[in-house]
Amino acid sequence: MTGSPAQCIRCVGAVLLDEAGRLLLIRRANEPGRGRWSVPGGRVQGGETDQDAVIREVAEETGLAVEVTRWLGDVQRGGPDGVVFDIHDYSCRVTGGALRAGDDADGARWCDAAELAALPVVTGLIEALAGWRCLPR
């Protein structure tokens, strides 16, 4: 008997650095990674493009309006029951709104390198950001 293939769920993430070089992070209110800090993002809904999903997720989780500027890369993260989250991360620029935590986030903040080093973050975040040269100053 062979196991069934893992369910793969397409997700997106938004990497935003402000003028001071600080990174936008949200504290996850739900699993996976509940209570840990990560970039805003989530699942791509049926019929959505990655760009549409990034814009929606950032607005829902942070109150900010953004434009997608470029694709950075992708990572895969394991989830419950063998689910694999296939996360496509994009660099974005803030175009409006006011920062506030909402939807699946119970915190939202801009952080510099020292603050990032002190925060509990989701697995693989620092390595991915370093690989894409997107770490805060």
Polypeptide structure, described:
The protein has 137 residues and is an alpha+beta fold. It has a single domain (8-131), classed as Alpha-Beta Complex (Nucleoside Triphosphate Pyrophosphohydrolase). It has three helices and seven strands; from the N terminus they run ββββαβββαα. The strands form two sheets. Strands 4-1-6-5 form a four-stranded mixed β-sheet, covered by helices on one side. Strands 3-2-7 form a three-stranded antiparallel β-sheet. The chain is globular.
CATH superfamily (homologous) name = Nucleoside Triphosphate Pyrophosphohydrolase
Gross morphology is: globular
Q: Helix proportion of residues, in percent? A: 10-25%
Distance between the termini: 52 Å
Helix-strand string: EEEEHEEEHH
Total domains, how many? 1
Note the beta-strand portion: 35-45%
What keywords describe this structure?
globular; 3 helices; 3-stranded antiparallel sheet; 4-stranded mixed sheet; 137 residues
List the helices and strands and how they pair.
Elements: E1 8-15, E2 23-28, E3 37-38, E4 41-43, H1 50-62, E5 64-78, E6 84-97, E7 105-111, H2 113-118, H3 125-131
Parallel strand pairs: 1-6
Antiparallel strand pairs: 1-4, 2-3, 2-7, 5-6
